[in-house]
């Protein structure tokens, strides 16, 4: 169990605790303001990630103090954790509404509206978070309907997520002032600010899944399709064995490699059962 499970999940997976999606948490005015600012001031700093980038050129001793401070702050307001599809299914099993909205990171990095982010709520009709979003000036939220938000059935949303898996996108769940969970994203390292901050710049704001991938060498035919889709550089190829191998220290447990394997050679194991990475997040 990660620190978030201990802090926000009473020892269970924190993102499977229904209360963390509850509209009750949105009676907190600070949280409401954070959500409004997050979506209306998208260009400036989605959840403070842009400020992390400003730490990059600083001298090492300054970073050694500021980075843990900034990361600690992110863990209180806006952080994510990688999810495999089976945990997405579990979340969709207990929420009542799913809303699709454009991705802020892709808006900033690509300048286009791409709808890869999904808001989830226990409320049957969208819920408070989406009322907050609809009330703000959200010029990046355009699209086919005037609100920029689309209601989907849970089945439609899951079908999209399965398609994203085939396209190599990594699912992740996100807080808007912890422990409130507002959505699940489908991330690509080429344009996701959080993945870039975490994997490329060394400012962890998107944490590893509760799982880690493992390959069964018997069915593996060495086709390397899984290597092509791993966004974390966790898969290598052994020319001697003509098989791939997975580095558990690099694996984020997203399960995208598994989705790409036609030989069913990759499984996810509970991170807690793999001593080398049981406490690596
Ligand atoms: S996709 Fe499957 S069969 Fe191909 S190299 Fe990866 S684990 Fe082996
Ligand atoms: S090895 Fe597989 S599960 Fe691990 S990070 Fe890469 S794609 Fe995700």
Q: What's the helical proportion of residues?
A: 25-40%
Mean pLDDT: 89
Tell me the total number of β-strands: 11
Beta-strand residue fraction: 15-25%
Helix count from the secondary structure assignment: 11
* Shape summary: globular
Strand order of the largest sheet: 4-2-3-6-5-1-7
Q: What descriptors fit this protein?
A:
alpha+beta; 7-stranded mixed beta sheet; 11 helices; 11 strands; 17% strand; binds iron/sulfur cluster
Structure description:
It contains 11 helices and 11 strands. The strands form 3 sheets. Strands 4-2-3-6-5-1-7 form a 7-stranded mixed β-sheet, with helices on both faces. The protein has a two-stranded antiparallel ribbon with strand order 8-11. It has a two-stranded antiparallel sheet with strand order 9-10. It is α+β, with helices and mostly antiparallel strands. Strand 9 (235-238) and strand 10 form a beta hairpin. The protein binds iron/sulfur cluster (2 copies). One iron/sulfur cluster binds next to helix 10.
Brief digest:
This protein has 11 helices and 11 strands. The protein has 281 residues and is α+β, with helices and mostly antiparallel strands. Bound molecules: iron/sulfur cluster (SF4) (2 copies).
What's the topology here?
Elements: H1 3-8, H2 29-40, H3 49-54, H4 60-77, E1 80-82, H5 85-94, E2 97-101, H6 104-110, E3 117-121, H7 128-135, E4 150-152, H8 154-166, E5 170-175, E6 181-187, H9 193-200, E7 206-207, E8 211-215, H10 225-229, E9 235-238, E10 243-246, H11 256-260, E11 266-270
Parallel strand pairs: 1-7
Antiparallel strand pairs: 1-5, 2-3, 2-4, 3-6, 5-6, 8-11, 9-10
Helix pairs in contact: 2-7, 5-8
The site of one iron/sulfur cluster has 13 residues, from helix 11.
